[in-house]
What does this fold into?
Amino acid sequence: MIGVTASAEAQQWEPLPAQPPIPADNPQTEQKVELGKILFFDPRLSEHGTLSCNSCHNVMGSGDDNRPNSIGMHDARGGRSAPTVWNAAFQSAQFWDGRADSLEAQAKGPITNPIEMGMGSAEVVMERLKSIPGYLPLFKAAFPGSPDPINMDNLAKAIASYERTLITPDTPYDRYVKGDKSALTEQQARGMQTFAELGCTACHSGANFSGPSSQAGQGFFMKFPTFAGSKYDNQYDLLLDTGRHAVTKQESDRHLWRVPTLRNIALTAPYLHNGKAQTLDEAVLVMAKTQLNKDVTPAQVKDVVAFLTSLGGTFPAQAMPRLPLTVGVSIVPAVDPHLKTTPLSH
Amino acid sequence: MIGVTASAEAQQWEPLPAQPPIPADNPQTEQKVELGKILFFDPRLSEHGTLSCNSCHNVMGSGDDNRPNSIGMHDARGGRSAPTVWNAAFQSAQFWDGRADSLEAQAKGPITNPIEMGMGSAEVVMERLKSIPGYLPLFKAAFPGSPDPINMDNLAKAIASYERTLITPDTPYDRYVKGDKSALTEQQARGMQTFAELGCTACHSGANFSGPSSQAGQGFFMKFPTFAGSKYDNQYDLLLDTGRHAVTKQESDRHLWRVPTLRNIALTAPYLHNGKAQTLDEAVLVMAKTQLNKDVTPAQVKDVVAFLTSLGGTFPAQAMPRLPLTVGVSIVPAVDPHLKTTPLSH
Ligand code: HEC
Ligand code: HEC
Ligand code: HEC
Ligand code: HEC
Ligand SMILES: [Ca+2]
Ligand SMILES: [Ca+2]
It folds into this structure.
């Protein structure tokens, strides 16, 4: 029998809208999206000319790097795992701790972050972009009103516009809630019901499974672990990073985290803000225990994982961007100012 | 006046053929090219899951990384600069020292090279590919005869097939030698003549400007510097790397290098095997002095550089590949076995 019972039916199941929210001051245009895509793929936005946004958020794959933590300039690792950029446009706040209130605000961060793209300052970034002749016409076309269009705000607007195209509607789940009852397997439909009955939907609600759609920037935060004291606290180092507290310094924000999307979740292993849960099965077990104080059976885990797999979308086909190039000279510094060690020899 | 004089006319100027040579045992098929493209973009072919072929040979740009030396696993640098993969299919031997006699032979190198992609062994590579369910149907489609199609030879064949599509015919130069005399500017046409008169064509001949088209694997090698003793030897460290000699250990091969293509050369700064010449102007000056013992005037350099710019092709539009993904688990190792240092803190 395929179908869900009253309890899951009662749940408001929403399909993903065809468009994410678009801020009034950054309407989508073809020119901005194209420029944003080029910038997203341009490794010259990093100190050594080696890392682009796409290095850690591979949109040819799951929009992340499938690593516990990313590798930035100088082989540096941070403490957080890269979330997917697919459907990030549906989240009302960005980053695990929600510290950026829009994709525009987010996009300015990684470029100058020393353990991500490592550019010394926004000025260095702009200097580079201005030294690539092909960027000026692209920025002009994307920002026709701007007298000096190559600036950090426009860069962020263009990247955010591109990211707003990175959405995956029409998953089996979406087709199912729109009425196609054959879109889910029996196990997936059962898992959907278990997901609702266990209470996962208390937090992972709405079309994006990241909480109620709220005003841009507001974010939807929950304590993790809500039920501290389980074996998972140590097993997965759950208490090391204080989450939102580290941003606001408010005691009430200790271990508060933004509720993340579950769309394409089966493709974005490993899991949790620190990437310590290696499989989706583990992540579901951890959630049931730490967030709902429930011990779930292996069969329940399998069913919920099957359901979560139905949130995997068809990724839209994309054309490769072409990067504007410089003629006769590279703008990537020849001498590596930060290189402290001699090259490895093997 | 636009046109070339008898001396340049006498030179055999060849346009780029529409197809590079295809080896008899690896005919092009759509399925192989598509698989090869996916592999070329798959960072899971590297130890940390962070570097793909495209990281150092960015086909959204000039097919290289515009760096003096590339950055591999563990922030490692080698002593050689990454050549472009655009039109590499027209070279009869691969690498600066010609040590790989085909694109197939070349493709097996970087994946297990500890300072490039750093995979422990071919077995580790195959294990990874086999753990990604989506690869088996792709390899089966590309190699219908193979009973166990996921192997290093087929990987190399697929990547080589993709690389044979990375060609840029129909440059201004090509249109010019096919009869469209308006395809070059006056300065470019003058530079073409200077290029021939100086004797650059003694080495950079043929459709690919990398010497006579010879049998696959044969390579076309020349001494660099041919005229040692100029100030450039020290300025650009020209005598440090012994080139082909380091491969064959033959004294007669000391400082022999494969003659590289000049197609798209204006886009592949910095220059020379060690990337020490930062501008194309410098590279031309060095060549004239070290290869022909000629002191060229700044005007001659400008003209030759203008001509070389006419070798820049229109890059074919490409669709982004979609990487086959794993469900519920990442195949990139969670713990980094080679990480000796603690993460940088800033
Ligand atoms: C070196 C790796 C790396 C690079 C390069 C990088 N990111 Fe990220 N990204 C991360 C990590 C790690 C996080 C999570 C950080 C956190 O939450 O504290 C993140 C978070 C994000 C988020 C928030 C998603 C969410 O659901 O909260 C977006 C959007 C994003 N990055 C886009 C970009 C863009 C655009 C660029 C390029 C301008 C970029 N990233 C470059 C690693 C990287
Ligand atoms: C009380 C709120 C709450 C409840 C209930 C809850 N979650 Fe979560 N969930 C979160 C938060 C917050 C995170 C982010 C955890 C972190 O920072 O690592 C999260 C993370 C996850 C992740 C990992 C996301 C990623 O990208 O790594 C999965 C999978 C998940 N939840 C599934 C579930 C399932 C299944 C249930 C029910 C069994 C559930 N959640 C119940 C709040 C909740
Ligand atoms: C970490 C950087 C890096 C990665 C990753 C890398 N390469 Fe290279 N590649 C280089 C360098 C450096 C050279 C020149 C080495 C030499 O000549 O000794 C090179 C040479 C080549 C050449 C020879 C071109 C010519 O004109 O001689 C080809 C073709 C090539 N690489 C293709 C690939 C493929 C295919 C992959 C992935 C399987 C790959 N590369 C991965 C850096 C890299
Ligand atoms: C005697 C042979 C010979 C002659 C003559 C010669 N070249 Fe070269 N050229 C080479 C070799 C060999 C290399 C590779 C040098 C290296 O290993 O760094 C090279 C490299 C180059 C490069 C750099 C390629 C790159 O990708 O970095 C340029 C540009 C170039 N030549 C242009 C010229 C010009 C212009 C002339 C005439 C003024 C000329 N060459 C004359 C053999 C020659
Ligand atoms: Ca993840
Ligand atoms: Ca170069």
Summary: The first helix of chain A runs from residue 6 to 10.
